[in-house]
From TrEMBL:
Main localization (coarse): cytoplasm
SUPFAM superfamilies: Glutamine synthetase, N-terminal domain (SSF54368), Glutamine synthetase/guanido kinase (SSF55931)
Residues of the GS catalytic domain: 69-342
GO cellular component: cytoplasm
EC number: 6.3.1.2
Catalytic activity: L-glutamate + NH4(+) + ATP = L-glutamine + ADP + phosphate + H(+)
Intracellular or extracellular location(s): Cytoplasm
Any one biological process term the GO annotation gives: glutamine biosynthetic process
Keyword Secreted included in the entry's annotation: no
Domain GS beta-grasp: 4-85
Record's protein name: Glutamine synthetase
Transmembrane segments: none
Length: 342
């Protein structure tokens, strides 16, 4: 009987930033379906999710992907539950209010590749700094692009696994890269981001490289790392109304604090009003404005005000589940007409 490796992946309880954890379960005669993945458990006292005297936490499978880097293997994204089956307080996925998957999300995940020998991003000399940022964005050539073999291998693994990556590119600073993920459904989008992150971490291990998710690991005149959240619902996709877009954007203004609280730790170092960001304590929106809190893409306008919005504030280390949940909650406060304008 053939045996399969099921890699159960979950988020721990560390604060302010959760980390990925995983362990392998060996099963026989596995058909590759999510419903065939059994509930499992782990020691929550080792992950800041339980006390030692009552340490069992449950792993509920919520999404499955093939694992192209291992033989007869699958990646199983899970939610953490308490021993009684209730949602654990660290479980951001369970807070998403999008049962009908009306909300679609695309996340732009930025990150730095860190040389474990120097502790600096790839492309940075051991002493001092490389040339100022600018030539590295979407760059080609060994003097500008660093770590391409890692990100290309990661891209292939994601596509083979079934992660809906829609693109990659080198970012503004040396050693900084980005991949983009999209899904029709907030929870599913979060699943794909986390599996994409997991595969990136595991791929970089082989090269002696670490992934730096913090939003401003390099101080000074260098762009930080974000995870811009592109989102839409049926209203945004079909309304054809500039006024509706303005109403939805304006609904975000009273909730700046609530959004920043779940948009990632140390984000104040990135959201300074410089380097294509709005200040962390301010809110603005505008067409094609990368210095605004929310950008209205020019493609949305050219399509007759039918499309999506981009919240540029989330940090690269934010939890896409919590980010999506907060965006959905805010959008639902907007008082927009039900009628669709032709």
């Amino acid at each position: 009987m053939a045996k399969a490796k099921l890699e159960y992946i979950w988020l721990d309880g560390y604060k302010p930033t959760q980390s990925l954890r995983s362990k392998t379960k060996i099963v026989g005669d596995f058909d590759g379906k999510l419903e065939s993945c059994p509930m499992w458990s782990f020691d929550g006292s080792s992950t800041e999710q339980a006390e030692g005297g009552s340490s069992d936490c449950l792993l509920k499978p919520v999404a499955i992907f093939s694992d192209p880097d291992r033989k007869n293997a699958f990646l199983v994204m899970t939610e953490v539950l308490n021993a009684d089956g209730s949602s654990h307080e660290s479980n951001g996925r369970a807070t998403i209010d999008d049962d009908d998957n009306d909300f679609w999300f695309g996340f732009e995940q930025e990150y730095f590749l860190i040389d474990n020998n120097t502790g600096k991003p790839l492309g940075f000399p051991e002493a001092g700094y490389p040339r100022p940022q600018g030539p590295y964005y979407c760059s080609v050539g060994a003097s500008n692009a660093y770590g391409r073999e890692i990100i290309e291998e990661h891209l292939d693994l994601c596509l083979e696994a079934g992660v809906n990556v829609e693109g990659i590119n080198a970012e503004v600073a040396a050693g900084q890269w980005e991949f983009q993920v999209f899904a029709k459904g907030a929870a599913e989008a979060g699943d794909h981001v986390w599996i994409g992150r997991y595969l990136l971490e595991r791929t970089a291990e082989k090269y002696g490289v670490s992934i730096e998710w913090r939003p401003k690991p390099i101080k000074g005149d260098w762009n930080g790392s974000g995870m811009h959240a592109n989102f839409s619902n049926s209203t945004l996709r079909t309304c054809g109304s500039k006024e509706t877009y303005s109403t939805i954007c304006e609904a975000f203004a009273p909730f700046v604090k609530e959004h920043i609280e779940v948009y990632g730790a140390e984000n104040d170092q990135r959201l300074t009003g410089a380097h294509e960001t709005q200040s962390i304590d301010k809110f603005s929106f505008g067409v094609s404005d990368r210095g605004a809190s929310i950008r209205i893409p020019i493609a949305t306008v050219e399509n007759g005000w039918k499309g999506w919005l981009e919240d540029r504030r989330p940090a690269s280390n934010g939890d896409p589940y919590k980010i999506a949940a907060r965006i959905i909650k805010t959008v639902k406060t907007a008082k927009v007409a039900d009628a669709v304008t032709a």
